[in-house]
Amino acid sequence: MKRFSVFAMLLTVTALVLAACAPAATPAPTAMPEPTAMPEPTAIPEPVLSDIVDTAVADGRFTTLVAAVTAAELVDTLKGEGPFTVFAPTDDAFAKLPAGTLDSLLLPENKQALTDILLYHVVSGKVMAADVVGLESATTVLGKDVAIKVDMGNVYINDAKVIITDIETSNGVIHVIDTVILPPAEEAAAPGTIVDIAVADGRFNTLVAAVTAAELVETLSGEGPFTVFAPTDDAFAALPAGTLDSLLLPENKQQLTDILLYHVVSGSVLAADVVGLSAAPTVLGKDITITVKDGKVFLNDTIQVIITDIAASNGVIHVIDAVLLPPQ
After folding, report:
1. What is the pTM of this model?
2. 25, exposed or middle or buried, with CB in 10 Å at 0-12, 13-18, 19+?
3. Band of pLDDT at residue 283, cut at 50, 70 and 90
4. Mind listing the domains of the chain with CATH numbers?
5. Is residue 202 left, alpha or beta, with left meaning phi > 0 and alpha meaning psi from -120 to 50?
6. Is residue 174 a contact partner of residue 62, using CB atoms and an 8 Å limit?
7. What SS3 state is found at 264?
């Protein structure tokens, strides 16, 4: 009996040892979570482009161009559907024009000339820089061609250098140029004489009346050539009250003649030559002094030349803002 108990005890111990040494039960696999769906990438909206005019206004380098477009009443045109390619001169480009040129172009009576110049900077269609360099010329909205050339890696429109390209707008593209380009002159009949031009212009009615009263019409319609520094009607109006009426009296004809001849120089002296002079002898036989200050030309120190190089068949006219009075 005792032997059986010992045997049973051995069986029990053996069972416990075997149970302790048995490998642990493999746990049941846990289900993997479903992957989280990644959000769709947010589409980046295309930038909203302004039209050519609004782009030029916002840029800040084209204030003169915008003023010119406004004066020529071309704002609606350049805001239109287009597309257009605009070769846009900067403010510095306009500043390079001869003194008085821009002021003259902005006058209402010169609106057509201003319009022609601006339309000479516009080409129909959207022509990007990569396409421009493959062209030799392009027809402008004015109907006249501009020449295109590539030189030493730079692109030129006529003589204007393209300095910035491909400013895209909602109705075309802007390329920036460093010089205002001027359309070729019309092949027209030869200009009239100095007197004919003064009569037709409309700004020299008082000068024409004075030339007539002094009996100088035939002289200034003659072969010449002459260079006339022509005072406008406003210039004559600035004389002291009663001065002009007195000069137009028959008894003061000689004094009037002397004043008018003091505005005339023999020969055709263009603006490019005037700026290189310090003085010029007039037909009266007395000199006028010439000085250049801040790019502007002055006669006798205070009288400014405001428009230059109006060609006549017998010379050239430069417009001045005051009447020249000969020294006593």
Report:
1. 0.47
2. exposed
3. very high
4. 52-177 (2.30.180.10), 194-320 (2.30.180.10)
5. left
6. no
7. strand
